[in-house]
């Protein structure tokens, strides 16, 4: 899909998060009586097969699929032919699967659900990253948001990394972000000063939806400014103001709100640092991946 080979092992989520999420997913599928259908399969039946994408995309979620079969036990082995962050192609296997047929059948849907969802996020992220690069601005970072499925954030944000994007704050404890509903009560200058006194050393990020707010936030010493739902020319004006301030740019500039594959290149051309796209995690279509078995023996 364009930018393969640049993603490191940082694309993988923390194994503790993987274990917890997989445990919940398996409990959802197996309680209270286990897999009634797989219980009918002869205990000595084995299966050989492959995980195969039906469409081109970017892979994510390998550790999650592995963990499904680790937690089920029974000796299912997955031999990966690709890793998180790799381009994958329709009809080309990404992993070989071998083990007890009953266990393979029990874990199949949980593993595929996680692989498909996370690979869909990685694929959509890569498309946005490629669109920014095609516009001639590969230095502009494609950011995700906190618009994630509750309980899946660590995996979804890892999938964004697998697609070549980067992570915005992971949760409310990571840094201060003053959005419109905060600012209605605090004000920009007073809010930034209070945040600096209360949480020294933390990033202070201020949301602005008009030029005058950007001027105030920059003067107040905000660490980062979110340019919310502005058109391209408004963003360009804000960048020029901040870049022209004494001492050069004093704050990171982020574009957010309504950004699409069709518009992200134009926004990247304004000179902003980051462009955040909520759709990466809340609207990515699943990448269709199937398990093709040769049959039990």
Largest sheet: 6 strands, parallel
General form: elongated
Given the helix and strand composition, which structural class is it? alpha/beta
Number of strands: 12
- What share of the residues does DSSP label as strand, in percent? 15-25%
Number of helices in the DSSP assignment: 10
Characterize the structure shown.
This protein is α/β, with parallel strands linked by helices and 297 residues long. The protein has helices at 15-30, 62-72, 101-134, 153-162, 180-186, 188-198, 211-220, 232-243, 264-268, 279-282, and strands spanning 46-53, 57-58, 77-80, 87-88, 95-100, 141-143, 176-178, 204-208, 224-228, 252-256, 274-276, 289-296. It is elongated, with a radius of gyration of 23 Å. The model has no long low-confidence stretch (mean pLDDT 94).
Short description:
The protein has 297 residues and is α/β, with parallel strands linked by helices. The chain is 40% helix and 18% strand. Helix 9 links the parallel strand 10 (252-256) and strand 11.
């Amino acid at each position: 899909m364009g930018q393969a080979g640049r993603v490191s092992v940082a694309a993988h989520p923390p194994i503790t998060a993987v274990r917890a999420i997989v445990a919940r997913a398996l409990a959802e599928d197996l309680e209270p009586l286990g897999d009634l259908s797989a219980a009918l399969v002869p205990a000595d039946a084995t299966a050989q097969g492959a995980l195969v994408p039906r469409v081109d995309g970017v892979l994510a979620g390998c550790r999650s699929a592995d963990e499904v079969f680790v937690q089920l036990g029974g000796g299912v082995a997955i031999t990966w032919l690709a890793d998180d962050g790799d381009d994958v192609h329709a009809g080309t296997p990404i992993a070989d699967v071998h083990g007890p047929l009953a266990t393979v059948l029990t874990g199949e849907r949980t593993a595929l659900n996680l692989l498909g969802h996370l690979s869909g996020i990685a694929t959509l992220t890569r498309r946005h990253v490629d669109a920014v690069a095609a516009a001639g601005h590969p230095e502009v970072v494609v950011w995700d948001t906190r618009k994630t499925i509750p309980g899946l954030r660590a995996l979804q944000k890892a999938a964004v990394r697998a697609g070549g994007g980067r992570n915005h704050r992971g949760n409310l404890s990571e840094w201060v972000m003053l959005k419109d509903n905060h600012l209605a009560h605090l004000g920009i200058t007073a809010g930034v000063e209070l945040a600096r006194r209360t949480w020294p050393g933390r990033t202070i990020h201020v949301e602005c939806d008009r030029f005058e707010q950007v001027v105030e936030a920059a003067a107040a010493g905000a660490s980062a400014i979110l340019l919310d739902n502005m058109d391209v020319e408004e963003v360009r004006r804000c960048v020029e103001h901040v870049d022209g301030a004494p001492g050069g740019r004093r704050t990171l500039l982020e574009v957010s709100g309504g950004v699409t594959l069709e518009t992200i290149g134009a926004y990247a051309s304004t000179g902003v640092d980051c462009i955040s796209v909520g759709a990466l995690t809340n609207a990515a279509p699943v990448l269709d991946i199937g398990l093709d078995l040769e049959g039990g023996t």
